[in-house]
Structures are given as C-alpha cells and as structure tokens.
Automatic annotation (TrEMBL):
Belongs to the succinate dehydrogenase/fumarate reductase iron-sulfur protein family. This is Succinate dehydrogenase / fumarate reductase iron-sulfur subunit. GO terms for biological process: respiratory electron transport chain; tricarboxylic acid cycle. SUPFAM superfamilies: 2Fe-2S ferredoxin-like, alpha-helical ferredoxin. GO terms for molecular function: 2 iron, 2 sulfur cluster binding; 4 iron, 4 sulfur cluster binding; electron transfer activity; metal ion binding; succinate dehydrogenase (quinone) activity. Transmembrane segments: none annotated. It comes from the Bacteria.
C-alpha cells in the first residue's frame, strides 16, 4: 500500500528552518527509506548520515517527532496515518547541515578515558574471568555509539556549559565497565566523579529509555558506579588516610 505523507524536515545549519514535503510512503518502510526518497525526488541536497541501514553502525541518529531515534529502525507504521512526521537533527550537538551533526564532542570524551590497565605482573592465566564479569562487559559492549543517550541527557542537552565537565552516559558507562572489570588495576572512582562528571547525573534514566540496544545504562552502569564512589568517599579508613596524607 502506498500513501502520501507530510514530512517536516530541518533544512540548513543551526539557524535553519523546518520545510514541509509531501512524499510517498510504501508499506513496511522506515523513516530513512522516506528520507532517501525525498533525496531522490525533491531534495537532492538533503544531508543525512547513514551507513548500515540495519541498526548497527549508529550513524543515522536523529529526532523524529521529538524523540531521539535511529531513522533506519523507525518504522513508518508507528505513526498515525495522518500524522506529520517531523525530523530534526540531534539537538545536543552542533548542526553541520540538515540532519547531520558534529558529534566530535563524543570522540573527545572517549579519548579522555584512561585505557584498560591490567596489573603489571598479569600473565595469560590472569585474564581468566568469571562468566558474570564477562556478561556484564558484554552488555556494555553492545553499544553502537549512536550517541542518542548523550543527546537526550538533560545535563548537556540544555546546558552547553556542562559539556566540558560531563562525559555523558555513554562514556560514564565505559568508565563503569573498566571500574568493575576484575583485571583492571586503576582506581577510577574519584576520576569518574571529579573529571567525568558522574555527580551531574541525577538518574533520570532518559539515556536508558532511548538506547536502541536496550542497554540498562543507568541501572547497570551509572548507579553501581555511584555506589562505588560513595563507598570510597564515606569509607572511614579512606577518610582517615586522606587526613593524614596516606591516600
Ligand atoms: Fe547508543 Fe545505547 Fe551506546 Fe548510548 S549506550 S551510544 S544510546 S547504543
Ligand atoms: Fe543523564 Fe542518564 Fe543520568 S539521562 S542524568 S546520564 S541517568
Ligand atoms: Fe546504521 Fe541506522 S544506518 S544504525
């Protein structure tokens, strides 16, 4: 079945505007299919980032009727038949053009995280891990780096000034993964709090809600990391050690 739909699409850079298009939609299509049809028929210069069209590359992130989504995984059938579909770029990152943002903030934050640090004397047998430790990491490793979680988090979505001090849920999850890794010898707790901005997170769980991989970012990464930070901060031995200059 084919029908005409109204698509309202952001055109231009940060000072651009929404433009309306009447476009054909076929049964079974996703939003990215319709954007490609727009490019083919009415707006050949429409900028859209995409790659796999299978929900695995994380390139096609945008906001569809105000909700952060992957456009290649958003079926047209989720909208009401007469509903206008409004497509805008992710709001938290600077717009380059149309639906394409500059997401380099995320890569800069990724580079700030000290890498996996095994003990100096770790031999091959030292890398054996309990299955539950493997599974914990595997959940976090499902991340496709779509940055929808960082886009939706209010700490930076509405506060440009917080970007310097906050890594966003995606990279706090990476810090949590390393902190909970049995073979990582670095203590990442105070760094998480003081340098990556864990304290800014007030557990709204919006990041978890939009994650296309269904990763429980808040429950399985951010809250356990907060508990570890609190455990260290309020440990009386740590407190005493810091007073006498030992820790
Ligand atoms: Fe995307 Fe989820 Fe990874 Fe965040 S954690 S970047 S929402 S896949
Ligand atoms: Fe932001 Fe997720 Fe925390 S949306 S406030 S990082 S729970
Ligand atoms: Fe790869 Fe959508 S095009 S996730």
């Amino acid at each position: 079945m084919t029908a005409k739909r109204t698509f309202r699409v952001w055109r231009g850079g940060g000072d651009g505007a929404l433009a309306d298009y009447e476009v054909e939609v076929n049964e079974g299509e996703v939003v990215l299919d319709v954007l490609h049809r727009l490019q083919a028929t009415q707006a050949p210069d429409l900028a859209v980032r995409w790659n796999c069209k299978a929900g695995k590359c994380g390139s096609c992130s945008m906001e569809i009727n105000g909700r952060p989504r992957l456009s290649c995984m958003t079926r047209m059938s989720v909208f009401e038949p007469e509903e206008t579909v409004t497509v805008t770029p992710m709001r938290t990152f600077p717009v380059i053009r149309d639906l394409v943002c500059d997401v380099s903030y995320n890569y800069a934050k990724a580079r700030e995280i000290p890498s996996f640090t095994p003990p100096a004397d770790a031999g091959p047998e030292g890398y054996r891990m309990a299955q539950e430790d493997v599974q914990r990491s595997q959940e976090f490793r499902k991340c496709i780096e779509c940055f929808l979680c960082n886009n939706v988090c209010h700490v930076i979505r509405d506060h440009e000034e917080n970007k310097e001090h906050f890594s966003g849920p995606r990279f706090l999850m990476r810090v949590a993964e390393l902190e909970m890794h049995p073979e990582d010898s670095a203590d990442r707790r105070m760094v998480a709090q003081d340098e990556f901005g864990l304290g800014y997170c007030n557990i709204t769980k919006c990041c978890t809600e939009v994650c296309p991989e269904g990763i429980k970012i808040t429950d399985n990464a951010l809250i356990p990391l907060k508990e570890r930070v609190a455990g260290r901060r309020y440990d009386p031995l740590v407190w005493l050690g810091s007073k006498i200059g030992l820790r």
